[in-house]
Amino acid sequence: MRTTNRKRRLSAVALTIATVAALAGCSVTTGAANNGQSAEGKTDGMGDDGVFKVAAFTAGYATPGGKLTLDAFVDEGNAQENWEVTLYTSAFDYDKINSDIQTAIQQGADVILAGFPDPRQIAPLVQAAKEADIPIFSIDGGVEPNDDFVVDITFNQDQIADLTVGALEEAMGGLEGKNVMVIGHDPHVGIQTRSNLALDKLEAAGAIIAGGDMKQALDPGTGRTEALNFVTDYLQANPEGLDGVWVGWDDAALGAARAITEAGRDDIYVTGVDALGETAVEIAKDGPMYASVAQDWIKVVDQMIGLMNDYRDSATLPDTNFIPLDGELIDRSNVATYEPTL
């Protein structure tokens, strides 16, 4: 059993919204859920120069999903009429992000795009945006509604946990009595949430958590190496004590799968989240990498561009501030026809 002093878990929201509802117009202030209304006193979201200045940021640019998503947003945004996108990045250095975005606000940003933010670490920039009456649009900014964002488009963490735990159950022929390692990364709210949900589901089904509790990677940017070391060290100490590895994101899952292959084992299975192109290749090999969940961040970018264009054109804000989407399980049954976006 895991230790009792584990952090209190975040709860995931089970609601799934497949499309963004229609927008309407009237008058409120920015900075909260606005029910499809327009920012007070504004007829459009552009500055006096007729340019829609977007300050986009992510602290997770070192991760494959973070880089691809923000690069796609910048490319698509700059292709829009009157848009000017500036991207600010860091390696999980929120002091830098907070400083950069506050400077961008002072220099005339009209809107902010938060890419995979940790809501617990962006209070300074949120306060600066509120004082300047600048809305923050977010991609994967948490697991529940947050009035700091006029909208947050993300994926349903409970559904992701269900899909991946179910895939491990299928791969291992059941969960009762099976030894499963769980690898997470608490500073990322989404990974933290789905990892804790998965751990609960595994234990409820009778699985034994390898090592007694979740393993924690220190940095998603080095997660592959960290996961490889977790699994390698555990197998050296417990050669017959591992049946599966549940991992909160693919880069680390690929490290776990490599450790199993290097140990010469073909009876230990791994699941991840992201469904990277590299992951799809490994799943197709019928090796330890068994399944992952695709989160179509390019679709999210397109959806977000549409909402931000509504704000650019008429200062209309989204009619809901939280949009959780369903992911898609990619496994041996459908990997041959899967087209990765990451």
Topology diagram in text:
Blueprint: E1 27-28, E2 38-39, E3 52-58, H1 64-78, E4 83-89, H2 94-106, E5 111-115, H3 123-131, E6 136-139, E7 151-155, H4 157-172, E8 179-184, H5 189-204, E9 208-209, E10 215-216, H6 223-237, E11 244-247, H7 250-262, E12 269-271, H8 277-284, E13 289-294, H9 297-314, E14 323-325, E15 328-331
Helix pairs in contact: 1-9, 2-3, 4-5, 6-7
Structure commentary:
With 342 residues, the chain is an alpha/beta fold. It has nine helices and 15 strands. It has helices at residues 64-78, 94-106, 123-131, 157-172, 189-204, 223-237, 250-262, 277-284, 297-314; strands at 27-28, 38-39, 52-58, 83-89, 111-115, 136-139, 151-155, 179-184, 208-209, 215-216, 244-247, 269-271, 289-294, 323-325, 328-331. The strands form three sheets. Strands 8, 9, 10, 11, 12, 13 and 15 form a seven-stranded mixed sheet that branches. The longest helix is centred in the last third of the chain and has 18 residues, at 297-314. The protein is elongated, with a radius of gyration of 21 Å.
- Spans of at least 5 consecutive residues whose pLDDT stays below 50 are 1-33
Helix content class: 25-40%
Which percent range describes the beta-strand content?
15-25%
Tally the beta strands: 15
Distance between the termini: 36 Å
SSE string, helix = H, strand = E? EEEHEHEHEEHEHEEHEHEHEHEE
Query: In angstroms, what is the radius of gyration?
Result: 21 Å
Chain oligomer state: single chain
Mean pLDDT: 89
Gross morphology is elongated
Secondary structural class: alpha/beta
Q: Number of helix segments?
A: 9
- Biggest sheet architecture: 7 strands, mixed
